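Slide 14.
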Amino acid sequence: MKKGIVMEHRHTYTIVMDRDGTFHKAMPVKHVDIGNEIPFEIYRAERRGYIFLLRKVWQIPGRLIVLVCALLLFVLPIYFALANNKTLAYLSIDIKRSFELEVDNKFHVQSIRYLNEDAEQVGMKLSQYRDRKMETVIEKIMEQSEKSGLVGEKKDMLIGVSYPNKYHGENRLLRNLNAFSRKRDDSWSITAFHVPHYVRKSAEKAGKPTNEKLAEMINRAESSQNSTSALNLNDEQKAIIHSFYFEKNRLSEEK
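Slide 15: predicted structure.
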């Protein structure tokens, strides 16, 4: 065992200097005056810390440990459930009436907003939509819209997808919607596209459906010959959105 001269006493260790003049942290030595030479053992901080922690744990009353474990078992599932159900995107759906679906990161619907009275009529006939796949809920909206007579001869649908947070898989969600559209062998024409979140916030502030606000911005930009590149829409999508709202407004005026 090494020998050294006691230089200082600390709370958890003693500082000693060996014969070569090197200082060491040694295991604490009680009742030894500074300047005395002693045999010493190198201080093991991790080992001491571990033993100290174990001693503290053993001092905790058993009932308190049981209570903490019970709280963890109760809180952790809720925490993970909330994390999994975090809003991924908002789907603004326009047929002849407007709906907004809140979708989580599993593409399951968490809530539906009905943006006009006719949409609410459809909503009254929807049930148990929560945690269902977005395609299933969209299909149900289409079915109920037909039954309620809220679809004209042209069964057009716009689906604007807006992300409240940065999301790197947005193409995957749109691919799912496009695949859903292709699989349907009927007279419906479905167009899905990305809508910048600031457009949705602007629409919400104005009390309008997101896609309607987007159509206004496209028309305003084109009439003033400004670029619409910031909207990330191709020419076909812009034409479909313009045609949808032009037809909708014209038919409304005729009634």
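Speaker note: The two ends are 102 Å apart (CA to CA).
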